Amino acid sequence: MGMITLPSFFAFKEIWRNRGRFLLFSLVIALITVLVLFIAALGEGLGNGNREYLDKLDAQLVAYQERSELTIPISRIDRGQAAAIRRVPGVQDAGAIGTSSVALMIPENDKPLRISLLGVEPGRPGEPRVVEGRQLSTDQAREAVIDRGTALRSGYKVGDTITIRSTQGTQDEFYDLRVVGLTDGQQYSLQPSIFTPFFTWDRVRPKSEAEVRRAEAIANVIAIKLSNPRDVENVKERLKAQVQKIDLATIQEAIENTPGYGPQQSTVNTQAVFTLLIGVLVIGGFFQIQVLQKVPQIGVLKAIGASNFTVGMASVLQIIAVTTMGVLLGGFGTFLLSLTFPPTVPIVFNGQRTLMAVGVLMLIGPIGGLVSVRYAIRIEPLRALGLSS
Prior knowledge:
By secondary structure, the protein is an alpha+beta fold. The protein is 51% helix and 20% strand. The chain contains 14 helices and 12 strands. The strands form 2 sheets. A 6-stranded mixed barrel has the order 3-4-9-6-8-7.
């Protein structure tokens, strides 16, 4: 017990006697913590904005147009193929999904809200589960289910009538839809979402001059729900053999092929890694300077019998204490700052990702201080006191 008590005494006695210096350095670690946590939250928020709807899809597979490179905006698939997919053994249900981007008009606001407009088949995979109100009724009903992000940014609620502006050919047209349900966060393509019955979506979505004259409704993808979610590979083989001109992807593959998702996450992760490396260098540099400033004191301790373990453990305990204080201050500061951000800022604090970031931050202190600990252990008493020849 004494082996731990003595290093603790030395470590915390020095921290207390130089509390101003150590507090300032804890604030530096706190700033690094804020930066790391916000980068992690930004990565989660941006990724969430691209994958949220797909991640919550009540399906295990997504069917694309053949040779569309698993890219939803490029894919054009006949809605009728959903019927052929449903006949394949192992498929429980399949629903067409159409995607587009339109402007939601907001009363008393000159600037409309850009939203993702998604067409889904009521009662089939692709339609989100509502948390307030009811589901969509029929394929041609002038109804809409809005996600929570749309509700927060626009102020609309269940029972309201919304107005959507959409370009038809070269003209802007306005369409009124009644909000019948509210779903949880269902962002798609970094935009809040509105869900309408499929044929209503086809009537409302922006169209070129050629599409305005076309009567046939074309979907982007088809969501496929399996009877046995674990039988994905076998059902994929059957689908490829029995349904022509489609490519298939799991939900995770669909997310990874979302335009911009991969490069976006790589960029954010690279920023996080470099921030952690900077943290290691800063902490290492600070404690190295600390050791250099107290070489004579360490020499005296060793001269009167202090062991390398005592000196090294005291340095380690100092590093852990200062790092912990900095991370706690940074975490609290991050929480306070997060309360000031509007819903338009894509910041999402995921519990698992945040804990991982905090754990890494707690490790960079000891890692950054290893050089200083090694140097403290290797100090020779006589040389430290200037008595060696």
